[in-house]
Specification:
Layout: E1 10-15, H1 23-35, E2 41-45, H2 52-57, E3 64-66, H3 74-91, E4 94-98, H4 105-112, E5 116-121, H5 125-141, E6 147-154, H6 157-175, E7 180-186, H7 189-197, H8 201-204, H9 206-219
Parallel strand pairs: 1-4, 1-5, 2-3, 2-4, 5-6, 6-7
Length: 233
């Protein structure tokens, strides 16, 4: 993977195998939670065509959001992202990249520049299959790249742990590696309402603030190796 200066900010890319799993919602609320700790947090929305992060952040956030202009072609967008990342790593305590869903060019660019990947999973067969394809591609290029899974829209901690355990069983069997377990985000009215109001739930709802505060504690500075691999039965 990309050689990084250890004095620069860590970089964590939030990814998912497919769209519709709440990846950008997780990225935005995680960024807000980290910023509320007094840290300088930069969020790169690498999918400028969607503009999800700007919509979800709304106004008044301490998160520094950067996104390429939708009018740029693919090459120009990559140049913009590359130069922006260099500047942000010099300024921020942590840079989060909200990558597009899937395994396209921008996803590969983001992971190649990252210390770790936060993989957003849901309990849905197609989402799990697409996430597996993403992890497989990444580990072929860099077998040591650390992924941690966060289960979104889960009904309980038991369900979330089961999703990651099944996914880790899959990667362990076919790829001889397991992902780490970063936590889970419940399926809640507070999250749905926050999206409609364009106000991150991590900043307004006490329960969701705790959820993302816990997640922030696990991914702070991108040090996923401090997480234990999910224990397998």
């Amino acid at each position: 993977m990309f050689d990084v200066d250890p004095h620069d900010a860590g970089v964590v890319t939030v990814v998912s195998g497919k769209g519709g799993v709440g990846k950008s919602v997780v990225a935005v609320n995680l960024a807000v939670s980290l910023a509320r700790e007094g840290r300088r947090i930069a969020l790169i929305d690498a999918d400028a065509g969607q503009g999800s992060c700007a919509y979800l952040l709304g106004h008044g956030s301490d998160v520094r959001l950067v996104s390429p202009d939708p009018s740029l072609d693919a090459g120009e967008a990559l140049d913009f992202l590359e130069s922006s990342l260099i500047q942000l790593r010099d300024w921020a305590d942590l840079v989060l990249i909200d990558a597009p869903a899937g395994i396209g060019t921008l996803v590969r660019w983001a992971l190649d520049r990252s210390d770790s990947g936060l993989l957003v999973l849901v309990d849905e067969p197609t989402a799990v299959a697409d996430a597996y394809a993403l992890v497989k591609m990444t580990w072929r290029l860099d077998p040591a790249f650390p992924f941690a899974g966060v289960v979104n829209m889960a009904d309980s901690a038991v369900e979330a742990a089961d999703v990651v355990e099944r996914f880790s069983s899959l990667t362990s069997h076919f790829l001889d590696r397991k992902i780490l377990y970063a936590g889970w985000v419940p399926f809640s009215d507070a999250m749905r309402q926050s999206v409609r109001r364009q106000v991150p739930a991590a900043a307004t709802d006490r329960a969701m603030s705790r959820v993302f505060g816990d997640l922030a504690g696990r991914v702070r500075c991108g040090v996923f190796p401090t997480l234990a691999p999910l224990a397998m039965n």
